[in-house]
Amino acid sequence: MELFLQQLINGVTLGSIYGLIAIGYTMVFGIIGMVNFAHGDVFMLSAFIALIVFLALTQIAGVTSLAFAFVAVLVVAMAFTALWNWMIERLAYRRLRGSFRLAPLISAIGMSIFLANLVYVVQGPRNKSIPPQFSDSIKLTSGGAYDVTLAYKQILIVVVTVVLLAAFWFLVQKTSLGRAQRACEQDAKMAALLGVDVDRTISLTFVIGAALAAVAGVLYMINYGVVNSADGFIPGVKAFTAAVLGGIGSLPGAVIGGLLIGLIEVFWANYFSSDYKDVAAFSILAITLIFMPSGLLGRPEVEKV
Amino acid sequence: MAEGDAKIDFAAALVAGLKAALVSAGLAFPILVWRAEQDFSNQLVLQSRWSWMLYAVVIGFFARFLSHLYEQRPKREKTVRTAASDAPPGRLAAYLVPFGIAALIAFPFVALALAGPAGAQKWIDNYGIQILIYVMLAWGLNIVVGLAGLLDLGYVAFYAVGAYAYALLSTHFGLSFWICLPLAGILAAFWGILLGFPVLRLRGDYLAIVTLAFGEIIRLVLLNWTDVTKGDAGISSIPAVTFFGIPFKPGANGFAATFGLSPSPIYRAIFLFYLILALALVTNWVTIRLRRLPIGRAWEALREDEIACRALGLDTTKVKLTAFSLGAMFGGFAGSFFAVRQGFVSPSSFNFIESATILAIVVLGGRGSQIGTAIAAVAIIGVSEILRELDFLKQIFGEDFDPTQYRMLLVGVAMVIMMNWKPRGLVSTREPTLFLGKKRTYSADVVQEGRG
Questions:
Q1: Sequence-ordered alpha helix ranges (H) in B123-265
Q2: Domain ranges of chain A
Q3: Which of residues 201-230 of B touch A (CB under 8 A)?
Q4: How confident is residue B451, by pLDDT bands cut at 50, 70 and 90?
Q5: B173 and B42: one domain?
Q6: What pLDDT shows up at residue B233?
Q7: Which residue of A has its CA nearest to B195?
Q8: What phi and psi values does residue B442 have, to the nearest 5 degrees?
């Protein structure tokens, strides 16, 4: 029971991070129908930016307040990651919208390889780790076989995720920007005829997706404290799995999918085998795509001739 | 300045360039300016290098400035060549193919004559064999991606199946390479059918992602199933290739002694070179022949328009499955060759980057074009091998400059540029296998690809 409760907490924490990344996949797929393969590497890049900004603040600027450093890192990482994704969309995807269907995916794979190797070249091959932050914890139970603890960083991760998701939900549902975004998702040509700037809306979709990936990157650094230039691939695939499982194109689906993937990963690693936890994620991806490609909350894709 | 009606607007290009420079500065700011590096007490410290930001700004400025000028070039009336360029098709191929094959057959001896036995080893092994392995893999994948239009991101799984098939069968059962080679191909094709059966009802991006998932699952199983595969440590001491029973080793029964030659490791390299050349040519020959059979036509029809194919009564699953398993079979052959050449296999040789490299070769060469694919393999693998040799660059850029790091960086950039500039690859003309009257080439402009 104690083990179960502890793993539940860990799974929700991990799932929040996957959910944040998954939104980037699901929004881009919703609006231009492409799998943004480079999104996992954008997430990895954001973790590096967060790491560097954190070190710059504490070592060069001499900031001592951890809370201030956290907020500053979050804002700066979101801004620069958004700039990167904006540029990526402009250079690698924009011209391919009318091309054959696999062209954007191949371009995105190229971009993914480019980003991973750019970070490898400029930051070196070694793991980068920072000392644990917010690592004090609350004991939830004691006296049993096992003490269940809830670390401050886990509370922080879940709270930040919930707050940002609420803000993001407001943005998509209540603002004119969000309306334009949803309109383009339904029918880009019609939206353009009605005066919506489709290019700008798509750019903004990439910017928002990257900002949420950057939040995930900062939280990932707080949770694990270590990052490597090859770390974009596996979390990227897991977050994509989350997006597919929740129903690609559906925003609540991405969050639910993220939580499910986080929980499945943690429980699988504990009750079956931690060596095969990535196999579990990949298998769920394959099984979902084959047997229920519209996921939990997605609309089935209608094929038009 | 420009003459006539085409005015080149330098001011606009300059403004665009300056904007791009500003964006580059922003992109470069945290990630390029500081490098986080461990100091002696294992703490991360930042090393600043503002010069890198300057490079980024300069590159950004000139890239945008020049591309802006290029976009302003006087536009020619875009002529869509509707049916025919009357040039006889495959003019390039007609001369290049026999010449290329002759050059490849002569290559080991030319290398031997020019560089001597010690130098030729490097040329035959690092350049010849290495490039030919990728040519063969790319031709195998070309059946799947180029002809049938199925994007397979997990092709390396079948390469791994072939390699482990030979490694395990030879170390456990003592089977020779010549028995294992067909077995490896059959096993890989079997895996192709097994994995293909559930996935091939998907299309496009979803198919690509599921093949990626299966490729990774196979790698992870090889990594973690330590009882059989020895995990990360890999399988070593795989029996070496023999010349139809005569081993390539010094001594009384060795190859050199049997044929009365002076002992040298070069014979093994030359034999492996001809072996992979033969395997690659078989792959090519089979593909060319299959293209003319009904099944090959069905593949290409499927690539162009899947819905039309179904309407015309093609069993699309069966058509896809043959392409998938044939591609897998050639991957399996290449894998068992890889195992016999290295004498060692481990899961790290079969990661996603390997799949992406093979895919990049097919994409850059022009999906469906055999010659384009071969040229792209020479370019990508050749360049990355040459990068290993550029030690003199260390004197320019400092001791810790490692040119090989830039290999995959360049591959990534090349894929993006190619998709934006020439989405159909280097060789994009389509050569029909059925024609009325006279054979003509079709430019890519007139071939509209369907959703597939």
A1: 130-142, 156-173, 177-199, 204-224, 226-229, 255-258
A2: 2-229
A3: 201-202, 204-206, 208-210, 212-214, 216-217, 220-221, 223-224
A4: very low
A5: no
A6: 80
A7: A286
A8: -115, 130
- Does B194 reside within a domain? yes
CB A256 within 8 A of CB A297: yes
Please spell the DSSP secondary structure of A164-205, one letter per residue. Answer: HHHHHHHHHHHSHHHHHHHHHHH-HHHHHHTT--HHHHHHHH
Residue B140 has pLDDT above 80, yes or no: yes
Which range marks the domain in which residue B135 is found?
A: 91-446
Asked if the C-beta of B104 comes within 8 angstroms of chain A's C-beta atoms, the answer is no
**Domain final position from B21, B41, B71:** B71
Tokens of A112: 């993914």
- The domain total for chain B is 2
Task: Give yes or no for residue A304 having a pLDDT over 60.
Answer: no
Say yes or no for a CB contact (<8 Å) between A80 and B29. yes
- Over residues B182-192, the mean pLDDT reads 93
CA distance A148 to chain B (A): 30
Residue to mutate among B43, B51, B141, B205, with most A CBs inside 10 A, is B205
In this prediction the pTM is 0.87
Residue A87 is nearest to which of B27, B202, B213, comparing CB atoms?
B27
Q: Is residue B54 part of a domain?
A: yes
Residues B230, B307 share a domain:
yes
Residue B286 to residue A58: CA distance in whole angstroms: 63
Rounded to the nearest angstrom, the minimum Cα separation between A299 and chain B is 15
Provide ipTM, 2 decimals. 0.86
Q: Do both B96 and B184 map to the same domain?
A: yes
pLDDT per residue as tens digits for the range B356-392: 889 888 888 877 788 888 888 888 888 878 877 776 6
pLDDT, tens only, A84-124: 999 999 989 988 887 777 788 889 999 999 999 999 988 88
